[in-house]
Amino acid sequence: xxxxxxxxxxxxxxxxxxxxxRADLWAADIEPAAIACARExxxxxxxxxxxxxxxxAVPVELYGRVDVLLANTPYVPSEEIAWMPPEARxxxxxxxxxxxxxxxxxxxxxxxxxxxxxxxxxHLLVEESEEQAPVAAEIMRAGGLAARIAEDxxxxxxxxxxxxx
Length: 165
Description:
N5-glutamine_MTase, SAM-dependent_MTases_sf, Methyltransferase small domain-containing protein, alpha/beta, four-stranded mixed β-sheet
């Protein structure tokens, strides 16, 4: 979800394949240019790419069956976009960056219904800033998911993981 060019889905699928795990990859985004790029990157692997707003783009046949939902949500607070490096702020569509007042608006929309789309034991994974992660975890809990924060200091990455019981 919010797949952009499909980089996360591509990396995740390749890592699973290297471990001998087959995955069906379904990707969605609202941005037409991202969809075109994601199709180039993911369709050769058998991935399916859909255009639309969040779960509206997801085929209903996946309802309650998603094991892992990677959501590359916009998480930059609206007022901080001006402070971003020009290569991002001047060349990315604003809606790919702008996460609303606190940067978590899109996550709120996803977390509110993700539990319905996830299979039992399924996970929602969302990269957030270290500062936003505790609030993002609370948003997932409010959506009925068990939430935890995982950090990789070497990569400087923080992921919030919500799990359906």
